[in-house]
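User: Hey, quick favor. My workstation is busy. Could you predict this chain's structure for me?
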Amino acid sequence: MILSELWIYPVKSLGGIRMPSAQVQRRGLQYDRRWMLVDEQGRFVSQREIPAMALLDTTIDESFLTVTKRDNPVQYVQIPLAPPVDDLPKLRAEIWSEKASSRLLPDSINNWFSDILGHKLRLVWMPETTKRAADGRYAPKGQYVSFADGFPYLIIGQASLDDLNNRLAEPLPMNRFRPNLVFTGGTPFIEDEWRDFRIGEVPFRGVKTCARCVITTINQLTAARAAEPLKTLATFRKHGNKIKFGQNVVWMGTGESAVIAEGMSLTALAQAD
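Assistant: No problem, here it is.
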């Protein structure tokens, strides 16, 4: 099995960036979901409420995260990768039922997002000092997560998507599921069975199959909604009241970081209980 795609989503629910290689950190790949849009109450917003968020693309260079309106690239905003933390107001941003310490970006940035998306929004950033715990019901103690829903990594096998597409009238791209790690080889849904695995020599652990939401029904190129793939997934991937696709993952290495790259081998070491 081979790591075939590597993705980050710097701003939660905006467009992703495919990376040839990336730095593995405790709370996720470097720059993955370190920014998030919130409403006037400080609660996160996503494509669930504003599908047009899918139409904002992101790029990263040495100094800036740039967000661009896909159908009008002259409309863009640049966000410093390393803002002056002490100059930014603190905000307790709400994600589902919990809150995380964040820093509020300047009004010029917030107003750009508000104007483009037609909602009063603010952009927050997660500094390194924030330690938001991953879901402790499944993740080992000492695991952290960025502004992702509950876990720092998501892995999906290409064979799993191929199996789903064979059941659909029109095949869907992998971007509907917004994974960080995609691999080729193996059988459909083999990732469900993994506990410990490694990419190259970098150790990971699968902790929970991923419950899917309506964002998977949003076309990431047009922001249009439809019934699929949830309608079909519900016929063979429903467990209780949850529809599952992909595996949530944590990094089990030591130290500050490691590096993985597309083309690395992927080896399963132990199956889930």
